Amino acid sequence: MVIAEKKQEGMRLGRYELGRTLGEGNFGKVKFAQDLDSGLPFAVKILEKNRIIHLKITDQIKREIATLKLLKHPNVVRLHEVLASKSKIYMVLEYVTGGELFDKIASKGRLQEAEGRKLFQQLIDGVSYCHNKGVFHRDLKLENILLDSKGNIKISDFGLSALPQHFRDDGLLHTTCGSPNYVAPEVLANRGYDGATSDIWSCGVILYVILTGYLPFDDRNLAVLYQKIFRGDFKLPKWLSPGAQNLLRKILEPNPVKRITIAGIKADEWFEQDYTPANPDDDEEDIFVDNEAFSMHEVPSDGDRTPGSPPLINAFQLIGMSSCLDLSGFFEKEDVSERKIRFTSNHSAKDLLERIEDIVTEMGFRVQKKNGKLKATQEHKPQKSLGSLSVAAEVFEISPSLYVVELRKSYGDPTVYRQIKTSIVFVQLCNKLSSDLGLPPSQELLATEV
User: Which of 9-23, 144-158, 171-185, 273-287 reaches the highest mean pLDDT?
Assistant: First the structure.
């Protein structure tokens, strides 16, 4: 166990001196660090054990550490060692200075094919290496691809990765996870999927964005987005070279059986241009992990759930709730008097419902609570009729650390004016909830109207 000490020159962690904060997330901070023996820079991810236990992500952190221990490749962010105290875990990581690939595309737009091909070659090298080690990332996206000072790719964030022990007896993975725009259709289908094949799909989405500057599958409505993914419904710009278009079609093939493999990508004529494979560093010494890093209290299992806790649903059931598999929803006329908003959050069900109650009370609603559900009513009394807006709130648990809030709106006034007014109030409520809970839409808040 290593105890961090505060010195005049800064915070000391063993032989590392901690400096400025590089970033902050739900689980802790990332700080710049310097090895006082070698002078080399590092990034130290500082995780609060109490926060990890509260969010019930102990297994996720253990998985990330176990995964990164296996990976020593030029295109994968390197874990150097894991230190710990009784209250914190310190992951000493490679210091990557070039930022996210997402930021590069967002600021500069699409890349020229030669530059984009080089980055894609590095991505495939890194992903291929991970697969050979039995590691499947399952959340490949632009935000999880970092760039070093020379512009080379570094794959990061293995919190959702899968290892051989996560496969079921059928040889497939069954956990629905990933980011909506990048997720493969077979992952959504909930019949089991091959981790390598689904990662290849995500690589294809990344290549598309690199070469075009925008996503191949995108829609503000999750149901419509997933329908596009299921069908492989995307368009290739005419200005892309025939070779790039051909490879993208092979990767973004919705049928996983027909989708090109890593070996097929490496043998592709467009991919092979100026290709120099990277050399893994597997001969380097083992990574030290302090046993204290895993000395955390166990979270109660599903069988120990307390009465009144929110219903547990899996991610595929969540997708089903958004009607993407009930295709009749795409052809039936929408009832404009009823509208739903759903979003995900790491806040507990209790905190979410309490905050919703506070907000709707401040906005003049009357609140009723029953069986973990909340109903709020706001009445309006125009001269000739009684109009009312009702909002029902319910929280579902989709994983030990992730909840989905569903807000359902309905109103009893037929006038267009009142419909518009109640819609505005409903949007204000949703915006205030996301703002007060500190949920930035780009990362922690996924909202969709269905």
Answer: 144-158
Domain contains 296: no
Other CB atoms within 10 Å distance of the CB of residue 329: 15
Contact 159, 91 (CB under 8 A): no
The answer to whether 45 is annotated as binding is yes
Q: Across the strands, what pairs with 184?
A: none
Catalytic residue of the set 125, 139, 194, 268: 139
Residues 222 and 259 in one domain: yes
CA dist., res. 360 & res. 428, Å (int): 10
CA 226 to chain CA centroid, Å, is 16
Residue 448: φ, ψ to 5°: -150, 140
pLDDT digits 0-9 by tens, 89-114: 999 999 999 988 998 998 889 999 99
Q: Would you give the end-to-end CA distance of the chain in angstroms?
A: 50
The residue among 283 and 200 whose pLDDT is bigger is 200
Give the C-alpha separation, 414 to 202, whole Å: 45
Q: What is the pLDDT of residues 252-263, one digit of tens each?
A: 999 999 999 999
Structural domain count, the chain: 3
Cβ atoms < 10 Å from Cβ of 231: 11
What dihedral angle (degrees, nearest 10) is formed by the CA atoms of 112, 114, 119, 125? 150
Higher pLDDT, 366 or 335: 366
The answer to whether the beta carbons of residues 364 and 432 sit under 8 Å apart is: no
Whole-angstrom Cα distance, residue 271 to residue 204?
12
Clarify whether residues 50 and 110 are in a common domain.
Answer: no
407-433 pLDDT, tens digit per residue, is 777 655 444 444 444 556 666 666 666
CA distances (Å), 227 to each of 105, 176, 189, 331, in order? 26, 16, 11, 13
326 is annotated as an active-site residue: no
Residues spanned by the domain of 117: 101-272
Distance between CA atoms of residues 156 and 68, nearest Å: 9
Query: Is 163 exposed, middle or buried, given 0-12, 13-18 or 19+ CB atoms closer than 10 A?
Result: middle
Neighbours of 36 (CB within 10 A): 13
Strands (E), 39-78: 41-48
